[in-house]
Amino acid sequence: MAANAQSIILHQYDISPFSEKVRVVLGIKGLDWFACDEPVIMPKPELTALTGGYRKIPVMQIGADIYCDSQIIIRELERRFPSPSIHAGSDNGTGWGIAMWTDRVLFQAAVAIIFGGGTPLADEAFIKDREKLTGRPFDIEGMKAAAPMMAEQFRAQLGWLEEQLSDGRAFLPGDNPGLADASAFYNLAFVRWTSPNGVKVIESFPGVAAWEKRVAGIGHGNRQEVSREDALDIAKATASTEKANADPGEPNGLKPGDTVTVMADDYGRDPVSGELVSSSAQHIALKRNDPRVGDVVVHFPRAGFLVTKS
Q1: Residue numbers in the chain where pLDDT is lower than 50
Q2: Which residues pair with 37 in a beta bridge?
Q3: pLDDT at residue number 122
Q4: In this structure, what is the dihedral angle of CA atoms 129, 297, 31, 103, given to the nearest 10 degrees?
Q5: What is the largest distance, in Å, between two alpha-carbon atoms of the chain?
Q6: Are strands 294-301 and 65-68 parallel, antiparallel or unpaired?
Q7: What angle do CA 91, 95, 96 make, to 5 degrees?
Q8: What is the model's pTM?
């Protein structure tokens, strides 16, 4: 089956931890989707043609609607495909807070263990790329020095998971897997892919290790492949389905038709500018044009992103 304007296209690469979070959600929901593999480092001309400059992975494309950051990707998957829900139990709101913890604090502990533990992942090209991405030195020696302390932090946070699982529940929210599971799991998967020392820390928590196997057993849904050029052709031939919507609670008076710029507030702060189409407390959508793909609407979350009026 070939991808089309209704297909879920995930611009990703297999060792991307944040892509793994989305892939687990696709598995929880049992969805068909297409992997569009992107380079690990810049340049990424096909991706930035879609996004307007945003370069981080993953990005989800459905027709001419482009979703940047795993937070807005998962929120949109839940909106379009609400059953089974990622909000298992009563974590409709708190699941997103847990995801913010795992995306920042837990992820940084995992990164320090991986790159500070002698794993040969970072060649010169990768280091230079990540320095441009973060705006600061990619200090391998500093990470090596910090690795023992960060192992303590990683262990402490895994202890929270162990306590959550101590009543015999199958998944973090309860009997069914949800957003909290996908969010915590991808960090452990990243460590398992790359860091034998980190794996030893994980294995010291038997409840966590058993839970990991249950989450891995969910799978990734039904994956197929699509080329970058075919993905761009789909965007070119499609119109966005996003409708103009003015948010009466918009705190800074932004409204459809305004020219705005959006950027991440942590790293990868490549600004994306366009015409505001819709916004809410949880999202903002911009219309922009690129010669290769025509008009597209690019979607971002609000938490973790900065919006300014141009």
Answers
A1: none
A2: 12
A3: 64
A4: 40
A5: 56
A6: parallel
A7: 135
A8: 0.95
